[in-house]
Amino acid sequence: MKVGRGLGRALGACVLLAMGLLLTACNSGPVRRVSEPSARLQQLSVRADGSWSADLRIENFSSIPMRFDSLDLTLQFGDAPAGHLLAQPAMSIGPESADVVTINLKPSAAAKLAVADALAGGRSIGYSLEGRIDATPDEAKQRSFEIKRTSALSPAPGLPGVLR
After folding, report:
1. C-alpha to C-alpha distances, 125 to 19, 87, 151, 157, nearest whole angstrom
2. Nearest to 112 by CA among 163, 42, 164, 39
3. Which of 26, 43, 73, 86 could bridge across to 55 with cysteines, CB 3.0–4.6 Å?
4. HSE of 74 in the Cβ direction (CA atoms, 13 Å)?
5. pTM summary value
6. Which position has the higher pLDDT, 110 or 79?
7. Which pLDDT tens digit goes with each residue over 15-68?
8. Separation of alpha carbons 104 and 114, rounded Å
9. Taking a C-beta distance cutoff of 8 angstroms, is the pair 86, 72 a contact?
10. Residue 106 phi, psi dihedral angles, 5° rounding
11. Is 145 within 8 Å of 34 (Cβ atoms)?
12. Residues 76-89: what's their mean pLDDT?
């Protein structure tokens, strides 16, 4: 009989220990993960005066909100540098969310020709973004993130002068 009581006490102690560990795990809260953000061109509109309007999609992959303070990205189409996308959006983006900032740009002559050729031919055109985004994670200090992205834009059907 003493063996049975000892086993019962050991089992009871294990159950209490397991419940204690479970409560401790629940008490730690959600994981606060800061991940590298991303940026990409969502839309590029060619204006009548030759300037461009670039809709830049900024993606926050972190598990916490981040305030995107500034960005400095070099935009290039093929081998033609288009210019710098400079902005200070000072906007907050929630966890695992995205938002768009519109930036006006006076592109280089070579980039204007490359984009005009793609639009006239109804073809896609490859682009690259490279530079940095400065962002402040919720309740933390500002960090600088390096951005490198290559992708392509295609003419938007029914919208002259627009690439998406």
Report:
1. 59, 24, 9, 15
2. 163
3. 43
4. 9
5. 0.80
6. 110
7. 666 666 555 555 566 778 899 999 999 999 999 999 999 999 999 999 999 999
8. 18
9. yes
10. -100, 100
11. no
12. 96
Structure tokens at 100: 């768009």
Count, residues in the chain: 164
Q: Which domains are delineated in the chain?
A: 38-152 (2.60.40.1820)
Q: What is the model's pLDDT at position 123?
A: 97
Please state, in angstroms and as integers, the Cα–Cα distance from residue 37 to each residue in 91, 101, 103, 107, following that order: 14, 14, 18, 25
DSSP string, 121-159: HT--EEEEEEEEEEEEETTS--EEEEEEEEEEE-BPTT-
